[in-house]
């Protein structure tokens, strides 16, 4: 019988298992090493992506053209041998007058010719009108009531307005009007011989350029102060073709 084989009933040497505390420390150490490796990998990827983004931002040209570099400024050398960079001169400034600063006279329209109506600012009555000669002028102050139909303007001495059914090119009327009540709103138009209205505007003051076949007409819509009537100043210049 082999002497290395223990006899039956002979006590065998005891097996020593690792200490549980040592096993726990080993497991925790392994986990820390793995976690540190993962963090290093994530941090490396983050740094690479940030570097790529910065490279794209610096290499991308501005919208609408190629990338431009700052102009090279001239340099000078002082007595000590130091090189200094001159600063760029400030850009020249130009003053542009604001449109709203223009005097009201520049914003006034010109008399366009028959048949047109408009609101303020109204054209000034001309001292002369090319190819036309003024024959007479008058001013009337009729009264208009709320919810009334079209009411025609008066002629000289509050007579009938001197419009006709034909010969439309034989005369021309330049009209300026304004409601005395500043809170009133009127509809202004021109009507033909049968009362058909034409172009219309709504406001408190305005102008008309009419031919021989049309008459100024107005209708009061109302007033913000509750008034149901208003007087309207109507000034007219009548022209005939120049010889």
How would you summarize this macromolecular structure in one to three sentences?
The chain has 243 residues and is of the alpha+beta class.
Q: Which features characterize this protein?
A:
243 residues, alpha+beta, 6-stranded antiparallel sheet, 4-stranded antiparallel sheet, 2 helices, 18% helix
Termini separation (Å)? 160 Å
Helical content band: 10-25%
Low-confidence parts: 62-68, 93-106
Our estimate of the beta-strand percent is 25-35%
Number of strands: 12
Order of helices and strands: HEEHEEEEEEEEEE
Shape: rod-shaped
Largest sheet: 6 strands, antiparallel
Question: Could you characterize what this model shows?
Answer:
This protein has 243 residues and is α+β, with helices and mostly antiparallel strands. The chain is built from two helices and twelve strands, in the order H-E-E-H-E-E-E-E-E-E-E-E-E-E. It has helices at 20-59, 104-107; strands at 75-77, 83-85, 116-119, 132-140, 143-145, 151-152, 172-179, 184-191, 201-203, 205-211, 215-223, 229-241. Strands 3, 4, 5, 7, 10 and 12 form a six-stranded antiparallel sheet that branches. The protein has a four-stranded antiparallel sheet with strand order 6-11-8-9, with no helix packed on it. The chain has a two-stranded antiparallel ribbon with strand order 1-2. Strand 1 (75-77) and strand 2 (83-85) form a beta hairpin. The radius of gyration is 48 Å and the shape is rod-shaped. The relative contact order is 0.15. Mean pLDDT is 79; it is low at 62-68 and 93-106.
């Amino acid at each position: 019988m082999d002497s290395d084989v223990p006899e039956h009933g002979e006590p065998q040497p005891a097996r020593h298992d690792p200490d549980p505390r040592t096993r726990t420390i080993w497991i925790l150490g392994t986990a820390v090493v793995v976690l540190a490796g993962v963090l290093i990998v994530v941090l490396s990827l983050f740094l690479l992506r940030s570097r790529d983004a910065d490279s794209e931002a610096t290499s991308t040209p501005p919208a609408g053209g190629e990338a431009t570099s700052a102009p090279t400024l001239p340099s000078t050398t002082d007595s000590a041998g130091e090189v200094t960079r001159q600063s760029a001169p400030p850009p020249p400034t130009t003053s542009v007058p604001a449109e709203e600063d223009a005097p009201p006279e520049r914003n006034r329209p010109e008399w366009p010719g028959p048949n047109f109506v408009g609101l303020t600012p109204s054209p000034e009555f001309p001292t002369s009108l090319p190819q036309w000669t003024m024959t007479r002028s008058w001013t009337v102050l009729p009264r208009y009531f709320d919810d009334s139909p079209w009411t025609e303007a008066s002629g000289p001495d509050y007579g009938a307005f001197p419009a006709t059914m034909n010969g439309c090119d034989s005369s021309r009327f330049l009209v300026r009007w304004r409601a005395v009540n500043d809170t009133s709103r009127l509809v202004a138009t021109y009507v033909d011989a049968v009362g058909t209205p034409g172009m219309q505007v709504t406001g408190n003051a305005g102008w008309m350029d009419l031919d021989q076949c049309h008459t100024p007409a107005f209708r009061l819509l109302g007033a913000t102060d509750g008034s149901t009537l208003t007087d309207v100043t109507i000034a007219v210049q009548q022209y005939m073709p120049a010889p």
